[in-house]
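note to self — DONT lose this again. spent like an hour looking for the file last time. sequence + predicted structure for the chain T wanted, 374 res
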Amino acid sequence: MSFEIVTRDGNARAGVLRTEHGDVPTPAFMPVGTKATVKGLHPDRLHELGAAIVLGNTYHLFFRPGVDLIHELGGLHRFMGWDGPILTDSGGFQVFSLRHTVTAADDDGVTFRSVYDGNLARFTPELAADVQRKLGSDIAMCLDVCPPADVSRADLAVAVARTSAWARRQLEAPRAEGQRLFGIVQGGVDGELRRRSIDAIAALGFDGHALGGLSVGENRDLMVETIAWSAPLLPDERPRYFMGIGDPLGILDVIEHGIDMFDCVLPTRLGRTGTALTWDGRLNLKNARFARDERPLDEDCPCAACERFSRAYLRHLVTQQELLGLVLLSEHNVRFLLDVTAGARAAIKRGKLAAFKAAAVERLGDAAAAAEAS
């Protein structure tokens, strides 16, 4: 894997991440395929929508169908029929976000009960490395401790220390051939602890770095402020990954501050609940006001939902729980965020990201104001 920054516009960067399964133009939005599928989207359709890389999850694949089975069947790419790059999350976020299942956490690892059958399981940095080795992803993530936003400073300091110690251990563990490893920075919005984490993780020489421990319930403005000062402290020549952002303005915020990669379940989750992301804001198609609306979801979108179907028809599908409606909305939402990201990438290359973002903010702000007035 290699990473090249092609153009800069302020702190924003446009580049290319090269992997054994293809090149990824950055900034890049990564659709989430938690259980070896981006829900409702065929792999070929993902390519057609513009997705260059997808994300899979160690926690869920470890339990279902089991990592040894995937390994036996040729690895995650072959198993899920996706021939592009894959990044695998270590499972750390799932373990700690499901903290009611955790029975013990110590310097060696974390013990918890599976959400599938309640049986005890234990994750360590070495296990996270071995699972991702067997999956054969292009990019593996280090096991980290991701505490909630309201954690005490003492517990946050423990999370930072353990994340760094676990990163050192995972760096020494075997990996799949050609697999690259990203370290994760913790520290919440605490300036001193996050700087401490950046210094420790950056010194280890990972192939890329992620800002973790944000977008976990903290104030949005404080989150963006933390990204603004912390992202430029990460090694400049390595890709930077923000874990968990999927609204259009949030994507533009992180791109502006120098983030190269980001992911979120939001587009498919909203699609499955009948909501579309558009330049007119979020459209909840269960709302009766769309019953006779002949317009497409978004006039400027070339996806299958917008080219062929009206809001009225899509509302009908949603209210009748027809699978086609949920698939079309999920596809549209993924396409919308990929297009926003591609637009920002093109704007960086022209040195016009600030103008692109300002126009997007104004357009989405006008939509929100109109929706509130109605």
